Amino acid sequence: VAVYEGLRHLGLTQHVAWRVSFVTVPAPVLIFVAVLTLIFGQDHPAGRWADRHNIPAAGLSPDDDLDNSPPSESDDDMSDLEKEKKREQKKKERVSVHVVESEQPPIESVVDVAVNEALTWKTALAIVSNPLTWLPALAYVTTFGFELALDTKMADILYMMYNGKLNGFNQQTAGYYTSIFGFLNIVTRPFGGYVGDVVYRRWGTQGKKWWTLACGLIMGVSTIAGGFYLAGHKAPTLPELSVVMGVFSVAAIFSEL
């Protein structure tokens, strides 16, 4: 907003100044981050994208017989049909896993136990039609999408409510207040990752699911509360700016965690 106001003072029109401000600040930052990701980032847990099939788990298929135990003497007396039935039975057996707690148990990725399947039209259709495939996207829309909506429209809402009614409150002031939601990411993003790791070590995937639901619930309740608070104030009374920013900051924090 400060760049925009500076460009306006230089004589640029609103249309041009707004677009130049985006090229001046966000674009170089995004390009810089993209270059760092290209240099230091990994395409895949195995390293390069071309090496994605070289990890041990990728070499497995659902039809692989993972039973490497030596044949017993009784196996020699079995017919081929009985041996085949025994192998099928071993595939169906379930292994009981007992969690052994330690101070800092290692986090195992699903890549370590993943089974590689060839992508066909049938498997692609099964993936696309599975609700779990769309769950991460839906969660992203309701969290990061919420934050983008807040960053985009909150300045307009604050300007509409307080311009000319609070001393010195103008478009630039509204932009500064709204930028708080974006700057919260500096703390909430890494802190959210840390909390997620702690929850996963202690309670596993189930714990992370409940933590995600709790964050979404708090975000939703805060947003609804903020909406009711704004709707409950009619002219000439003004909503308290501190209350508005506080309630929606809580919503932004839990959408970013």
Task: Walk me through what this model shows.
By secondary structure, the protein is mostly helical. It has a domain at 130-256. It is 65% helix and 0% strand. It is built from 10 helices and no strands. α1 packs across α2. The protein starts with a helix and ends with a helix. The relative contact order is 0.08. The model has no long low-confidence stretch (mean pLDDT 79). One of its GO terms (molecular function) is nitrate transmembrane transporter activity. It is found in: Membrane. Residues 51-99 are annotated as: Disordered. It is a multi-pass membrane protein. One of its GO terms (cellular component) is membrane.
The gist of it:
It is a multi-pass membrane protein. The chain is an all-alpha fold and about 260 residues long. It has helices spanning about 1-10, 15-25, 25-40, 75, 80-90, 120-130, 130-160, 170-185, 185-230, 240-255.
Q: Looking at the structure, what is the overall shape? A: elongated
Low confidence ranges: none
Total beta strand runs:
0
Q: What is the distance, rounded to the nearest whole angstrom, between the alpha carbons of the first and last residues?
A: 26 Å
Relative helix content: 55-70%
Oligomer: single chain
Rounded to an integer in angstroms, the radius of gyration calculated over CA atoms is 28 Å
Class by alpha and beta content = mainly alpha
Membrane topology: Multi-pass membrane protein
Subcellular location: Membrane
Protein name: Putative high affinity nitrate transporter
Keywords: Membrane, Transmembrane, Transmembrane helix
